[in-house]
Specification:
The structure is a single chain. The chain is an alpha+beta fold. A hairpin with a 5-residue loop joins β8 and β9.
């Protein structure tokens, strides 16, 4: 849930300590407006912490080196002059829960607060899990089948007032307990509560009791502070991916004393949270800019290489084929990828004077070909219980009979399969990647490079199931490995639509109800509209007389965002997607089970018994397959777990046809950048990849020769 994503955003030290003479305990801030302007007195003279016996160390074995006194950074035999300001963009304003990191699941919020907050663990530059606020852990399997993990914390880590930069309190084990307690309070409406209730012993029962208005004792929940610097989690069962789960937001700490002071205003603005991470946000002009300032009280300040991050707002309103290049050349940002429709940019950086360059071999030495595999998957999905019908074009307004016919049709499995095989998504992908649209194509749900077993990527398990059941050989569903679309088949789609029509008429519809009117939300981008229309036209052609796509075009940015993700004003939507929270296929596949993380988008809001019954009817068969896979938790049975999940994933897409995966941001881009590659933490799940600690910025462009030396060194040591 990083990771509920909207398609709208797709575009291309030691702690500073004060003396505390003669005191054993810190004088904690009382959080009055006056006291927030001053540092609290502090009990620690340093934050060195010795790992206790029996704990496994989480020390980062691949930590970056320092920038020398002359401002140079050395890597792979390269000595690079650096600068202490990083200039980049952000594409969407924080919304919904703003900076309430314990409620939020929107990636364009978390990209900011992950730079302000640290949890127990994070990922290093090779994606290994390493300690953030934890220095080590131990775990044990209990006789009752539960599993207990105990984490030892760094001592002397500061909670800091975002506005003033002054110390407000110390981070302790109690803060991690308080964070879980907040997430599990239904009154707070945390959109990440399901992650906790699926893992921590007693949490689901506690949450359900509170939801039903019953009394419940938090002591029954499997999280507690063993000591001031040890926090312990007891899980329902052995959970091989638990460490990777801790990289996501519901496990972040919360200063309970501060929460008591700030109350319901917690997280409503950038200054209504305390910070323990690498940066404070010191300036925010909505739809204009954000400025991060290095937190000089940060426990790992030596790995924060820039003092300032300047983010410029880059919205759909200002986006053009040339804008990012122009901003880079004007010094507004420090990197950009050449848009292949930017003729001047392509000629300058990629093709060269003789026109012989290419994206994978650019002519300009300052331009680098970069291959990336997308972590998020964008999907098409249905609203099975639509209640909102708003139209900018009144001619599209449906009668009650037409609404009922549409709802009946999308509950028909063969009708959905007609859409699955009839959507020629390559026509739409040409908007995002006109030269190689197949690089952005995604026909599975779980991203590649999320997790593997004995060197076999989980995505390969899904490919095996697809090939076996479709009677094909060598077809791959994920990202860059696609040479063409293995799913689009107009003839097959027509057969499914014909079967669906016969079934629907047998169930009570008449010829007069066809074609079925299916409302979709269009884009506000004039250039994008043509690609959307071409894709939907091919779908209508495959389902002649059975389906009629009505594109409902928003008229304002606010409407654009709300219609796509909040109001559910559609029958079929391709606006949203999912990015992983931890290193296991369950992170994707649990989104579509009964009461899963994305089912509200399907219209399943559990408002009444009829809605609940419909949800079980549509999602029940898939949920059974998911549950069987999720029950395999022994690490020695990982192969069986992945095989079972692959069967469930295939069923979700190709048997139940509940979702239509279509896009992931994979492929080669021609990139011009001042950031030194492969220095920051990275993973396809959790929050680490948005962290700007460990980002090192050169004062000049990284050339192909320098990049090659660094990448070769990275791969040799991976």
């Amino acid at each position: 849930m990083k990771k509920f994503l909207s398609l709208f955003v797709v575009f291309a030290f030691a702690v500073a300590l004060l003396g505390c003479d003669g005191c054993n305990e810190p004088e904690y801030n009382d959080f009055t407006s006056e006291s927030l302007t001053e540092d609290v007195k502090w009990e620690h003279e340093g934050n060195a912490t010795t790992l206790k016996q029996g704990f496994t160390s989480l020390e980062n074995q691949n930590a970056n080196g320092a920038i020398d006194e002359n401002g140079y950074y050395e890597i792979a035999g390269q000595r690079i002059k650096t600068k202490d300001v990083y200039k980049t963009v952000y594409q969407t304003e924080p919304t919904k829960d703003l900076f309430n990191y314990l409620c939020n699941s929107w990636t364009y919020n978390s990209e900011h607060y992950t730079n302000m907050l640290d949890g127990l663990v994070e990922n290093d530059k090779y994606s290994n899990i390493v300690g953030a606020l934890a220095i080590g852990y131990k775990n044990q399997l209990n006789s009752d089948g539960t599993e207990t993990w105990t984490f030892q914390l760094k001592e002397g880590v500061a909670w800091v007032n975002n506005e003033s930069g002054n110390i407000a309190a110390e981070v302790t084990a109690d803060d991690f307990v308080a964070g879980i307690k907040y997430v599990l309070n239904p009154a707070n409406a945390s959109s990440t509560a399901s992650i906790v209730t699926s893992l921590i012993n007693g949490s689901a029962e506690y949450y359900d009791a509170l939801s039903n208005g019953e009394t419940a004792d938090f002591a029954t929940v499997g999280v507690k502070a063993v000591s001031k610097y040890e926090v312990q989690y007891t899980l329902y069962q052995a959970t091989p991916y638990f460490l990777s789960s801790l990289t996501y937001s519901p496990f972040l700490p919360l200063c309970e004393e501060y929460l008591e002071w700030i109350g319901s205003d917690f997280g409503t603005t950038v200054n209504n949270i305390l910070v323990n991470g690498a940066f404070r946000i010191t300036e925010h002009v909505a739809e204009n800019k954000m400025v991060y300032t290095k937190n000089d009280k940060y426990y790992d300040a030596e790995h924060v290489y820039v003092n300032t991050v300047e983010k410029t707002f880059y919205s759909a309103d200002v986006a053009t084929e040339t804008k990012l290049r122009e901003w880079f050349e004007a010094g507004i940002i420090d990197s950009f990828s050449v848009n292949d429709t930017d003729e001047a940019g392509m000629n300058k950086y990629v093709l060269g004077a003789d026109g012989t360059g290419s994206i994978q071999n650019p002519a300009d030495p300052s331009c680098n070909p970069i291959l990336s595999l997308g972590d998020a998957t964008y999907i098409g999905y249905y609203n099975f219980a639509r209640e909102t019908y708003e139209y900018t074009n009144p001619d599209l307004t449906k009668t009650d009979a037409e609404k009922a016919a549409t709802l009946a049709a999308i509950q028909n499995k063969n009708f959905r399969k007609g859409v699955l095989y009839g959507l020629e998504v390559m026509k739409y992908l040409e908007y995002y990647n006109s030269e190689n649209p197949q690089e952005w194509l995604m026909r599975g749900y779980t991203n590649r490079e999320l997790t593997a077993y004995n060197g076999k990527d989980y995505a390969d398990y899904v490919d095996e199931v697809f090939n076996a059941k479709q009677g094909t050989t060598g077809v791959t569903l994920s990202g860059i490995n696609n040479g063409s679309d293995p799913v689009y088949d107009a003839e097959k789609a027509a057969q499914f639509f014909a079967t669906a029509k016969a079934e629907l008429i047998a169930a009570g519809l008449t010829e007069a109800d066809f074609p079925i009117k299916v409302d979709v939300i269009g884009s506000m981008s004039e250039r994008q509209v043509g690609y959307e229309e071409a894709m939907y036209a091919s779908l209508e052609a495959a389902g002649t007389g059975v389906i009629d796509i009505q594109i409902n075009y928003p008229t304002s940015n606010d409407q654009n965002t709300k219609w796509g993700s909040v109001v559910n004003n559609y029958d079929f939507s391709m606006w949203s997607g999912w990015g992983p929270d931890y290193a296991d296929p369950q992170t994707f596949l649990q989104t579509m089970v009964v009461r899963g993380f994305m089912v509200d988008q399907l219209g399943f809001t559990a408002k009444d018994e009829a809605n609940i019954a419909l949800e079980k009817s549509v999602l029940g068969a898939y949920t059974e397959l998911f549950d069987k896979a999720a029950a395999i938790v022994d690490v020695a049975q990982t192969d069986a777990r992945y095989k079972a999940f692959a069967e469930a994933e295939y069923a979700l897409i190709y048997e139940e046809a509940i979702i239509v995966p279509w896009l992931t941001q994979s492929g080669y881009v021609a990139n011009v950048s001042k950031t030194i590659p492969y220095q920051a933490g990275r993973a396809t799940y959790g929050l680490t990849s948005d962290k700007l600690k460990n980002v090192v910025v050169s004062d000049s462009i990284i050339t192909k020769d320098i990049r090659k030396a660094i990448v070769d060194d990275y791969n040799a040591n991976k």
